Amino acid sequence: MSFFDPLQSEEAVPLVAASALGLLKDRLPNASVGRHYMADIAALFGEHLKNITWIDLQIPEGFGLLYDRETGVLQGDPLLPGEFELALCYKSPVEGTEEGGEAACCLIRLTVNPDPVSLWKNIPSDPEGLFAKPDSEAGFFSGVELMTLAASLRGRSHAHEGGYRDDDYAVNISASSEDNASPADGSEMDAVSTGKVAGRSAWSIFVVADGAGSARLSRRGSQLACTVAAGHLREQLQADNELDEVVEAMAGLPTDSETLEKVRCLAANIFTKASYEAFSAIYREAGDQAATLRDFATTFIGVLLRPCAGGWFFAAFSIGDGGAGIVVEPGSVEILTQADSGEHAGTTLFLTKADLFQKSESLLARTRVLFCESFRFMAVMTDGVSDPLFPSDAAFESPETWAVFEEELLPVVDFLSPQSGMEAHLLEWLNFRSPGNHDDRTLLLVVPCRPSDRTTTETEEVAS
Amino acid sequence: MSLRRFPVYLLLDTSGSMRGEPIEAVKVGVRMLVAALRQDPHALESVHISILTFDQKATVLCPLIGLEAFQMPPLRCLDSGPTHLGEALAAVCYRVDAEVHASTAAQKGDWRPLLFIMTDGSPSDTAMYREWSLKIKEKGFASIIACAAGARAQVEPLRQVADHVVVLDTVDSTSLGAFFQWISSTILPGDEVLTTAVSPSLPPPPPEVHVVL
């Protein structure tokens, strides 16, 4: 077949409507930058194809797609986003001519979607604005028994508009070795000498909160929820309290449901008081700002953790989505929260819902407790992390999903011995890509110190 | 992992009075809307569009499809005939039941859908309209925004079904263009604005679009 390029040819080639040519469609399936594309051009002619001797598709240079005249297939990796009209030319034989027939061209349309990655903007939030908060935050908290990595990252959807990070967290770890060097009373001095913190300063407190994207001051709502609740939890646990007395008095891990239920009620009381305190702080702030409670809408997850005879004690309380879970050992997971999720994505319950505190049963139902001998790590996260990594409530309870989660974290976190500096890697990791998931992300990883670590600490303590 | 979709339903009047410039303007408007949404990374990954038309009957012109794959279907008007908006509301309800996923233990649900209604007249099937303007409230729409286009369009029936009613004085390419542009801005600024339980606030409309209070 002789080479013929109708558009380059001196002869005028008629440009006609695709329908006039008998084409089935005048447009190709949409393409996307960054994704391989393939379309059968010859198939556009349907049954007319048998009358066609030659087809060509004119592709601008640098477009990323190539038309193969042999196969009639257009394919490649599109480089330019936009709406395009490509000239499709063909010849059909006319009796008595040698050239292969009469040429005609039509324009067929092709939409090339941009690559979403290229569209995201990263606009810093206004550091001088009302309730400004850093776009990201990370921390490493080291105690005698526990180490915690914390990272909170503004989501792409907020970064795109220069909005604030609406997530927040607070970590209040059990008395660190430094704190124990000058204990308030003698009993805790004994604890130090055994390498274990006991009693009321043994509690560690973890809170995460996710301000609603639709609520204009939710960054402050989540901040108040974290700082006020964490502070109030600490206050309650430092003072004489029954929860501490009961846990402290245990000779080993309790197994009877009566004790567990009693402990759960005590924990529920403490959480209810602290979260109500946070609610009240938000209520006052709303008054000061002439705003509504709704403007401060935030979720809330709180976890209390302390060593106890024979192992560890956890208590957790949550309002809204996100969650907290413990990998006890590989293949064994304990979930501490039940997400409040509505029928649709993005619908959840908020701490700022006033009638929440009128139903004591529901507050009790929000509280879970757990005793275990040992654990590998605990993760507390907002839905920005749980949505992409645990795509359903069932997945959040599945040890398999947690195993994948741990594996994905392995390059940045050493679960056996987390160290200062890893929080920066964790923060970087939090920026992972997941289509459709661009919310703020907050993750706390809590890891028990290994006995050998404890011994080291103890030796140092004794030496000093 | 299934992506959580953000369904956007467009309910467009194709009755006889829309013939000519009005329907051409609607076509251009929808194309502009889609082009604008494609420039937003979040929308590009999550927005799904469905187009239904209504004249003497309701037609599902384009079932819910991702923005990336969406192609504008041909829009045609009849010569004349009634405006069966009630039937169209019923059709939207059926589509939402069939297409929009609710949350289950095994799957997170889609975002709450949005509905835009554009008409230059008023519903002729009044009994059906009354029935389905109530039923549609149960379908979990994040927001229903109705547009009364031109002098013949009646605002009152639209108020029964829509959270927001806007008025266009004329049914031409300028005002419809402004309307669709404005639709894209109501969808865009952080999808969350319209998809959470908190009631949405609309961005300020252009001069051609009047919000009915």
Number of helices of chain B: 7
Taking all Cα atoms into account, the compactness measure Rg of chain B is: 16 Å
What structural class do helix, strand and pairing data of chain A support? alpha+beta
The Cα radius of gyration of chain A reads 31 Å
Would you tell me the overall average pLDDT of chain A? 86
Tell me what portion of residues of chain A adopts beta-strand conformation. 25-35%
**Estimated helix fraction of chain B:** 25-40%
Give the number of DSSP strands of chain A: 18
Helix content of chain A: 25-40%
Summarize the biggest pleated sheet of chain A.
6 strands, antiparallel
Shape of chain B: globular
User: What is the highest CATH level, the class of chain B?
Assistant: Alpha Beta
Number of helices of chain A: 13
The CATH architecture of the largest domain in chain A can be named as 4-Layer Sandwich
| CATH superfamily membership of chain B | von Willebrand factor, type A domain
Greatest interface: A-B, 42 and 41 residues
Please name the CATH architecture of chain B: 3-Layer(aba) Sandwich
Find the CATH topology of chain B.
Rossmann fold
Number of domains of chain B: 1
Name the descriptors.
A: about 475 residues, Immunoglobulin-like, Phosphatase 2c, domain 1, 2 domains, six-stranded antiparallel sheet, five-stranded antiparallel sheet, B: about 210 residues, alpha/beta, globular
Question: What order do the helices and strands come in, and which of them pair?
Answer:
The complex is a heterodimer of chains A (464) and B (213).
Chain A: E1 31-32, E2 37-40, E3 54-57, E4 65-68, E5 73-76, E6 82-92, E7 102-113, H1 116-119, E8 136-142, E9 146-153, H2 156-159, E10 167-172, H3 177-181, H4 186-193, E11 204-210, H5 218-238, H6 242-249, H7 257-288, E12 300-308, E13 311-319, E14 323-329, E15 332-335, H8 360-365, E16 367-372, E17 377-381, H9 383-389, H10 393-396, H11 399-409, H12 422-429, E18 441-448, H13 451-463
Parallel strand pairs in A: 1-7
Antiparallel strand pairs in A: 2-5, 3-6, 4-5, 6-7, 8-9, 9-18, 10-11, 11-12, 12-13, 13-16, 14-15, 14-17, 17-18
Chain B: E1 6-13, H1 21-38, H2 41-46, E2 47-54, E3 58-66, H3 85-99, E4 114-119, H4 126-135, E5 143-149, H5 155-161, E6 164-168, H6 173-187, H7 192-195, E7 209-212
Parallel strand pairs in B: 1-2, 1-4, 4-5, 5-6
Antiparallel strand pairs in B: 2-3, 6-7
Helix pairs in contact in B: 1-6, 3-4
